[in-house]
Design goal:
With about 550 residues, the chain is of the alpha/beta class. The protein has a domain of about 100 residues: ANL, C-terminal domain (GMP Synthetase, Chain A, domain 3), CATH 3.30.300. Helix content is about 30%, strand content about 25%.
Length: about 550
């Protein structure tokens, strides 16, 4: 259920929205878990983080909660990676030891420390160590290109950087010699003394800065998302509660921990619930399937493309046993209902959804107890602590059932973009709403349906075409394994609708047959004018999402016009 309230509108100066009389705000009325075994023993602490210096002062609630879990179950397994298995007692002791090492090197409250490493137990140890020592964690994708890495680290201006063996050389090359770089995946962790030459943290934020998360930067320079402790702590605890995590859960973390989806949504929520994090450096289907089988994992999170690839892998290997899974969730891309249904057929578990952004999370997802099976095409319902508005291009609220841009607000709202007031002003309305740039609609029962991205929208002859809608129809055809739809220039209609199609191995590709099928499901202007057969859909090496720019290049190569 979702409640909605008419709220007096504040006068907005943003050129994106005109003021109006009232705001239609949707809030979650999702009930709390009713199973004692599914509840967290540590309550959510609402409100700003108490002032703290280094580890000798009051610990951030996030660290205190982790230590409370370790005190209850010191011998339980906290993290498993490719190298080792670490208990909660060992994990928290190592976190404290490394926090003290950072303090001895000169870390002071508010100092920014960059972490550039692949997924591992030591990534998590390092992140929590920075926080325990009072520092601000800065995460950067380990696969970041050298030019972007140099830009990012120059922009973040950290007092030190932490890297693993795979990234340390690139990190050292990207930083001035005066900034120390410590290697995290070693037994004897040491760090040279920190310098004090850095940009100060902003002083006008609503809460102290706790983390900066750099985006993957697929279309422009990476954006630096500033987050508070309250946002991280609430996000991890809220996911653990809504998804009913408990100490018996073992969660596959194959999404980069440099991304909040991997770090907070999956890893931190699992740890605060007392479960086990199974850390994978890659999201390769073989690695995922092997880890689920070997460790009897119960939870997996990923993007849609990962599940589609996993389906293909499982179809070729009928002996794979993933029956231990109880919960699977996808996010970051439009739902692929055909692949998700096939995953359910093969594994016995439906794929639920998680819709949000790093700028404001959590927002929309499923409670697997309330909704054992996801609603076809829906991303789920509002998470407690989050608010949603759906507005027209001029900022007017649209009625229930109609499509508009999603505006998000809640405990997990970002503090802004680091060192970029212009982007912050463009992303946040003056009354505190984040512009997601996602088009959604809400039904009468409170389920949210993601229609597409504003930036992906194709405008053909003045009419809007959502790629996600067309992709969904194409995947329903038995000859289509997967498809990505993009808009390409058209001299008459402005843009043409073009689909890159991966053919199912059991069928011959008949482009006209697929187009005829699409005409039965779609308005004529939405039907692809071209269907180009490709062997695969290129994905972003960082997030695993389909890379639409590379798809356009692939189409140009396969079918030049």
């Amino acid at each position: 259920m979702v409640s909605h309230t008419k709220m007096p509108s504040q006068i907005r100066t943003s050129s994106n929205y005109w003021p109006h009389q009232a705001q239609l705000v949707f809030r979650a009325s999702m009930s709390a878990p009713d199973s004692p075994s599914a509840q967290l023993e540590t309550p959510i602490r609402e409100g700003p983080t108490p002032a703290m210096s280094n580890s000798s002062a009051i610990l951030p609630p996030l660290i205190a909660d982790l230590q409370a879990v370790a005190a209850r179950q010191p011998d339980a397994v906290a993290v498993i990676d490719e190298r080792s298995e670490m208990s909660y007692g060992s994990f928290t002791r190592l976190v404290s030891a490394r926090a003290q090492a950072l303090e001895r090197a000169g870390l002071q409250r508010g100092d920014r420390v960059a972490l550039i490493a692949e997924n591992s137990a030591m990534f998590l140890v390092s992140a929590f160590a920075v926080w325990e020592a009072g520092g601000v964690l800065v995460t950067v994708y380990p696969s970041t290109a050298p030019a972007d890495l140099a830009y990012t680290l120059r922009d973040a201006s950290p007092v030190a950087a932490l890297a693993d063996a795979a990234t340390v050389d690139a990190v050292r090359s990207a930083l001035p010699a005066s900034v120390p770089v410590a290697v995290i995946d070693v037994a004897d962790f040491t760090c040279a003394s920190f310098g004090r030459d850095r940009l100060p943290n902003p002083t006008d934020l609503r809460e102290p800065l706790f983390m900066i998360c750099y985006s993957s930067g697929t279309t422009s320079r990476p954006k630096a998302i500033m987050l508070s402790h309250t946002a991280l702590h609430h996000g991890a605890t809220a996911y653990a509660r809504v998804w009913r995590f408990n100490p018996s859960d073992k969660a596959i973390v194959c999404m980069p921990m440099a991304w909040l989806y991997g770090l907070c949504t999956t890893a931190m929520s699992t740890l605060l619930a007392g479960g086990t994090v199974i850390s994978l450096r890659r999201s390769a289907p073989a690695l995922i399937a092997s880890a689920v089988e070997r460790h009897r994992a119960t939870v997996i999170t990923g993007v849609t493309t990962i599940f589609a690839k996993l389906v293909k892998y499982l179809e070729d290997r009928e002996s794979a046993d993933l029956s231990s899974l109880r919960f699977a969730v996808s996010g970051g891309e439009p739902r692929n209902e055909v692949a998700f249904q096939r995953f359910r057929d093969l594994v016995g578990v439906p794929v639920h959804d998680n819709f949000c952004s790093s700028e404001c999370f959590p927002l929309i997802t499923y409670d697997p107890f309330a909704d054992p099976s996801p609603i076809l095409g829906s991303a789920g319902r509002l998470v407690p602590g989050s608010e949603l508005r759906i507005v027209s291009p001029v900022g007017a609220d649209v009625p229930v059932g109609e499509v508009g841009e999603a505006l998000a607000r809640g405990t997990g709202l970002m503090l802004g973009y680091w060192n970029d007031a212009e982007e912050t002003a463009a992303a946040l309305t003056v009354d505190g709403w984040y512009r997601t740039k996602d088009l959604v609609r809400l039904d009468a029962d409170g389920y949210v349906y993601v229609v597409g991205r504003l930036s992906d929208m194709i405008i053909r002859g003045g009419s809007n075409v959502s790629p996600a809608e067309v992709e969904r129809v194409l995947r329903m055809h038995p000859a289509v394994r997967d498809a990505t739809v993009i808009g390409l220039p058209d001299p008459v209609y402005g843009e043409e609708v073009v689909a890159a199609v991966v053919c199912a191995e059991t069928h011959d590709f008949d482009a006209e047959g697929v187009r005829t099928f699409a005409k039965e499901q779609l308005a004529s202007y939405k039907v692809p004018t071209r269907l180009v057969q490709v062997d695969h859909l290129p994905s972003n090496t960082t997030t695993g999402k389909v890379n639409r720019r590379q798809v356009a290049a692939l189409i140009a190569e396969a079918d030049p016009r």
